[in-house]
Amino acid sequence: MFPSDWLSQQANASPTHEAMIWREQTWTYAELNAQVQQLSGQLAAAGLLSGQRAAVLLPNQPRFVMLIHALIRLGVVIVPVNLRLTREEITWQIEHSRCSWLIFDEHTREKAEVIQLPGCRALDLQGLPAAVDVPLRAIDLDSDLAIIHTSGTTGFPKGAVQTLGNHFWSAIASAFRQGAVPNDRWLLTIPLYHVGGLAIPLRCCLYGTAVVLPSKTNFDANSLIADVDQFNITLVSLVPTMLQRILDGLQVQTDPGQWGKSLRLILLGGAAASSNLLERAHALHLPVAQTYGMTETASQVVTATPELTRTKPGCAGTPLLFNRITIENELGENLPAGATGEIVVHGPTLMREYDGEPEATTKILKNGSLHSGDLGYLDPEGDLWVLTRRSDLIISGGENIYPAEVERVLLGHPAVREVCVVGVEDPTWGQAVAAEVVLQTGQNLQAEELENFCRGRLAGYKLPRQIRIVAEIPQTASGKIQRGEVQKHFAAIRAVDLENPD
Amino acid sequence: MFPSDWLSQQANASPTHEAMIWREQTWTYAELNAQVQQLSGQLAAAGLLSGQRAAVLLPNQPRFVMLIHALIRLGVVIVPVNLRLTREEITWQIEHSRCSWLIFDEHTREKAEVIQLPGCRALDLQGLPAAVDVPLRAIDLDSDLAIIHTSGTTGFPKGAVQTLGNHFWSAIASAFRQGAVPNDRWLLTIPLYHVGGLAIPLRCCLYGTAVVLPSKTNFDANSLIADVDQFNITLVSLVPTMLQRILDGLQVQTDPGQWGKSLRLILLGGAAASSNLLERAHALHLPVAQTYGMTETASQVVTATPELTRTKPGCAGTPLLFNRITIENELGENLPAGATGEIVVHGPTLMREYDGEPEATTKILKNGSLHSGDLGYLDPEGDLWVLTRRSDLIISGGENIYPAEVERVLLGHPAVREVCVVGVEDPTWGQAVAAEVVLQTGQNLQAEELENFCRGRLAGYKLPRQIRIVAEIPQTASGKIQRGEVQKHFAAIRAVDLENPD
């Protein structure tokens, strides 16, 4: 469909336009394209072949952006790995997605070198061979672009297979909802191993605009506050925890109302935003736009304008062009406006499948439509209100955690008989992980010991912050765990804590 | 590829957003979609069928925009007819493009009713039957959208067959070059029977923005000046003659520098703009962007930014994303930067073919690339400079006229033996048509008589403004007419006229 990849085409259309900015460095599209061509040639010399999959373990720095374009140019599927995962978790993902390569650099070498898997070659970007000639190849919207792992309901992550088309249609529709202008600069605040991060350099490339990488590689509110003004940022994607920290950081400034005058849009997604957070942002006249989407839909599919976010706080807006939203009851029947049911997404941005998981795929993708598991309704104006995210999903600081994944690890401890993991309210992260555990008969154990057991087996953000050893976990008559009741236990404890602070 | 047409999708994505504005009326996307659905049902009831072709004879008013969307919804190919053509010319186009319908309304009834063709039914929009139910149908980028007639080198117009994909890719790339923001309002100054006009409601529909129809249906500089400010217009497409008249109109205002503060972009195309015109526009800080394109490329394929138009006046800029420009010599070899040759256009916006003209198609579309016949070069920054339009093409007030078409009519007069038609400089229209005529031996005739002969056979803008009866037309040794020499004759006469004004 395209005679060559988007970067090569944009280098032809906008050669002198800025493509990427990091600290004191700027790359035009011609320059970025030349460096990507060089990198592609080096990767080809190292042995990367079209059709292979490459796990990528890199921080959010220019090299990662270049690598994304180079892998697209070579036809290699990108499997970006969450840097916060443990060695065990990373190994599982690489093995599960049958990666032929594990790509890293000096920042991640230590983490990468301990991962040894048959059939997967380690590739250090610091020691690449001399480039060979790589011809530009046609790209097709149906080709696989990336596999992004999400927390899974079955205790293991699932790899959402995203095509170039998923990101193409998402980019086009996103531009028309939010506007895209030649002097836009999008600050890459979301890790590139998340769909909301990966989408940004791809969009900027199609729009011919600049992606700006934060001066500090890891999230730092004060540094981001400074970056926005220094680099005249117009677009930024934030999860609620980030926005809250930015607002906290602004609060101590002499004139917080002067911040972010260049911002055209703050895309706020990844989790529900509290009305208090939205009020604080509106008080500073920040152009916050609430959005709804997920890895499986190649990021945003429903997005409000800043005006709508102000007049209808909590509302996600209308679906983006090419996507459609319906609300279904348990029988799969479409519900009218106002009625609450499962949010079902239709359109060209839906992932191809869960990699190697035909059953899980069939469960979520029915007749080409994505059954999100989230509950919500459409109001008479066609705007979506998301009521609860997938029943038991925990979202902590923008990261998704399925209880099943934590439960699987806890059940791996020989003393544990039963376990129920839930999300509890957390002032900083939105939610945090908590667990009730029933021990095997005759066992005696402290919660601390279980916490230590989880460390090394689970990424930090997935670790239970509270573990209660209990005699039994509330169940229905039919033996189904009552997660809601467990949640109430923790809420009650929190209420007492708040009344009696230390 | 799309489950339904773009308007129905935008009505779902942006139901409450304004879609069309005319005088005191505003239509939201939901309202426009509902009216188009009603119109589609009425047209279906009248007998229109998918795959048919319909000639459309309508002024630039909301009904024409609705009809475009309705015909797309029904799968009927739009053949918009230039209202300035004579009955003879219109009849030829309808017959040549095998239209099953001729659609008109009260504004064009008089012109339409005299056209009678077997196999072509007249359809008055004022007397449509009650609507039948029309289901939404999937649309495909490969489907034919419209046939737009352009002046032809062989003495007859040619119908450029444009697909939905041509306009889709053009719209996307145009948005990213010029920017597209949700509050954009595009003033429809170009007739919908020209590609530069037809493209505007299609683009606005994809962007979810508003198309504004001028208060006066025919071009009126003072009315346009008022419309821009009254309706907060952000985008407007102009041919140089229009811009010149607007600047003339502004000159008599008390503070011309206050005009058009809402304008984000003035897309200037259709003909070469003089440096004087650009200077006048820049003096008023107007955001003029020069552009290059043609009917056969579904409008603009190369467009400068306003900044570039200021710093490099006369330069058309870089190709839009997805399009590519090469410069070829007469052997079909690619020339390097700086070298002048034929401008060749590549990309997904090239017309499918000239309707029913395989030979003419093969001549212009070689290996999927469009050989424009225009001469130009690419500078080292990749910017295109157009030196001369297709050798003998005359552009008068933005309308294209091939000499062959006027010559064919003049040669139809029994007293005429030889004729050479050329474009001569015109202060208002850029160029005007002029002719040198050699009479048959023994014939004696006044130029006035030939002018009258042309009237009724040629649209007004194609009529020769000057006809010189001469003894012979300069020819090369091989008998080829030397158009350049004829042009010099008229230039010399004009120079004398300017020195000795009445």
Which strands sit side by side, in order, in the main sheet of chain A? 2-1-10-9-11-12-13-14-15
Q: Based on DSSP secondary structure assignment, what is the total number of beta strands of chain A?
A: 26
Low-confidence stretches of chain A: none
Seen as an oligomer or otherwise, the chain set is homodimer
| Helix-residue proportion of chain A | 25-40%
Q: Could you tell me how far the N terminus lies from the C terminus of chain A, measured between alpha carbons in angstroms?
A: 64 Å
Main beta-sheet annotation of chain A? 9 strands, mixed
Greatest contact between two chains: A-B, 32 and 32 residues
The CATH class designation of the domain at 1-139 in chain A is Alpha Beta
What is the C-alpha radius of gyration of chain A, as a whole number of Å? 23 Å
Q: Per CATH, which architecture of the domain at 1-139 in chain A?
A: 3-Layer(aba) Sandwich
Strand portion of chain A? 25-35%
Give average pLDDT of chain A, whole number.
93
Question: CATH fold name of the domain at 1-139 in chain A, please?
Answer: Rossmann fold
Write up what this structure looks like:
2 copies of one chain form a homodimer. Chain A has 502 residues and is an alpha/beta fold. Among the domains of chain A are: 1-139, Rossmann fold (3-Layer(aba) Sandwich); 394-499, GMP Synthetase, Chain A, domain 3. Chain A is built from 15 helices and 26 strands. A 9-stranded mixed beta sheet of chain A has the order 2-1-10-9-11-12-13-14-15, sandwiched between helices. In chain A, strands 16, 17, 19, 20 and 21 form a 5-stranded antiparallel beta sheet that branches. In chain A, a hairpin with a 3-residue loop joins strand 24 (416-426) and strand 25. In chain A, helix 6 (164-178) crosses helix 7 and helix 8 (221-230) crosses helix 9 (240-251). The longest helix of chain A is centred in the first third of the chain and has 18 residues, at 29-46. The first copy, chain A, is globular. The mean pLDDT of chain A is 93. Chains A and B meet through helix 1, helix 6 and strand 15 of A and helix 1, helix 6 and strand 15 of B.
